[in-house]
Amino acid sequence: MIVGVPKEIKQSEYRVALTPAGVTMLAAAGHRILVETGAGIGSGFEDNDYIREGAEILGTAAEVWSQADMIMKVKEPLTEEFVYFREGMLLFTYLHLAAAPDLTRALVDTGVTAIAYETIQLANGSLPLLTPMSEVAGRMSVQVGAQFLETFNGGRGVLLGGVPGVPPAEVIIIGGGVVGTNAAKIALGMGADVVILERSADRMRYLDDVFGGRIRTLMSSPYHIAEAAARADLLIGAVLIPGARAPHLVTEPMVQAMKKGSVIVDVAVDQGGSIATVDHPTTHKDPIYVKHGVVHYAVANIPGAVPRTSTFALTNVTISYALELANRGMDAVRRSVPLQKGVNTHQGKVTYEPVAEAVGLPYSPLDKWLESIPYDQLQP
Questions:
Q1: For the chain, how long is the longest CA-to-CA vector?
Q2: pLDDT of res. 380
Q3: C-alpha angle 220/225/229, rounded to 5°?
Q4: Which positions of the chain have pLDDT values less than 50?
C-alpha cells in the first residue's frame, strides 16, 4: 500500500502523523511511504530523517494526497484539503466529526473511508489512540490555566499553589477520565486545591484511591457543578462522549456567577465544548477571549504546543493500526472490532451513529457492509 503523510496546515499545528521510526516499520512490511517536504520540521524531524528510513519526499501536498492509498494525518482536514478527497481513499486521523458537519458531508459526498483515531475503542471501553493526546492535553490544561491566572495575562492574579499563609487556588475539573486525571496530577503537583466532578461512583472510588485522598470528588450534577464553578479559580472541562458532541454541563448563568478573572480551559472544544460560553475554538496564536469577566482558553489542538512529545506519543499508538490497515486494507477492519468502531464514513455513508445523529445524516451500520462483501474484495 502507498501511505501518504502530508504536512499539517491547521494554524499552529506542528505535529506530524508519523515519526521516522514509524516509517521504518511500514517500509519493513513492504509499503511505500510518501512524506510531504517539511512535514516533520515542527516536531524536530528533517526530510533526510525520513529518507534514511525508506520514505520518499514529495514537494507538495497535492502529490502526496493524489498518489497515496491511505493518508495519515494528525488533525481533521481543513476546507482547502477537501479537494483531495476521492472515492476509495483511506483517511486515518483525528476527525471529531460530530462538531464538523461540513467535513462529514465532504467525506460522504466523495466516498472516503474515514477512520477516526478518537473512536477506535477496545472491549474495556478505552480509547487507545485518544489516550496519549488526552494525557498531554490534561497536563497542559493546568499549565496554561496557571499562566492565564496571572494578572498580566488577564487573570485574577492568583498563584496556583499559594504560599505559606496564603491559600492555594481552587481547581475544579469536570470529568474524571484520562484528561481529568492527568490535569489533577499536575494541579496537585503545583500545590492547588483540586476537586473532580464525576458521574461514576466507581470512578470516584478509583480516583480517591489512586490520589490517596489528596483530591476531593463530587457527584457531577447541575447543582454541584454550579456550586463548584462559583468557587473556581481555574475550571477545566474534561468531558468526553466518544464520537459525540460534548454536553454543555456548565451553563452561561454558571459562568456569569464565576469570579472575575477566573480561567476556563475547555479541553472538549474540539467536540463542541462542555462550557456553554465556549462558542468558538481559539488558536495557539490567539488562545483566549474574555466573556462575563472570565478568561476562556479554547484551543482545539492543545497538544500541538508540544509537538515533539505529542508526535512520539501519537505514533507509539497509531503505528500498529496503520500497519494492519496497510497490510490488509478493509479486511483489517473486518478482523478488528476496535477498527470497526473507528470507521466514521465509508462508501458515501455515515457509519458511526453518534456522528450521524450530531450532523443530521442517515446512519448506516458498518457491519451490514462487512457481511455483504466477498473476502477477496477487501484486500489492499
A1: 72
A2: 46
A3: 145
A4: 375-380
The CB density around residue 103, as the number of other CB atoms within 10 Å, is 22
Active-site choice (193, 233, 266, 270):
270
270 part of the active site = yes
Length of the chain: 380
Instruction: Please name which of 234, 227, 240 lies closest in space to residue 262, comparing C-alpha atoms.
Output: 234
HSE-CB of 96 using CA atoms within 13 angstroms: 21
Report whether 110 contacts 155 (CB < 8 A). no
Q: Based on the domain organization, do 291 and 333 belong to the same domain?
A: no
Residue 123 lies in a domain: no
Strands (E), the chain: 2-5, 32-36, 56-58, 70-72, 90-93, 113-116, 170-174, 193-198, 216-219, 234-237, 263-266, 288-291, 294-297, 343-346, 349-350
- Of the candidates 349, 361, 339, 268, the one whose C-alpha atom is nearest the C-alpha of residue 92 is 339
3-state secondary structure string across 151-188: HHHCCCCCCCCCECCECCCEEEEECCCHHHHHHHHHHH
Domain assignment of residue 96, given as a range? 2-111+307-378
**The domain boundary residue, chosen from 305, 330, 347:** 305
- The CATH number of the domain holding residue 41 is 3.40.50.720
Helix-helix angle 131-148:307-328, to 10 degrees: 160
Which of 305, 321, 356 terminates a domain? The answer is: 305
pTM for the structure as a whole: 0.89
Q: Residue 269: inside a domain, yes or no? A: yes
Same domain, 267 and 291: yes
In a domain, 121, yes or no: no
Domain count within the chain = 2
**Residue 211: which of 262, 173, 241, 249 has the closest Cα?**
173
- Does residue 139 lie in a domain region? yes
> Which tens digits make up the pLDDT trace of 44-74?
999 999 999 999 999 999 999 999 999 999 9
Q: Are residues 12 and 93 in the same domain?
A: yes
Residues 46 and 57 in one domain: yes
Burial 181-207 (b: 16+ CB within 10 A, else e): bbbbbbbbebebbbbbbbeeeebbeeb
96 flagged as catalytic: yes
Do 262 and 332 reside in the same domain of the chain? no
Burial class (CB in 10 A: 0-12, 13-18, 19+), 253: exposed
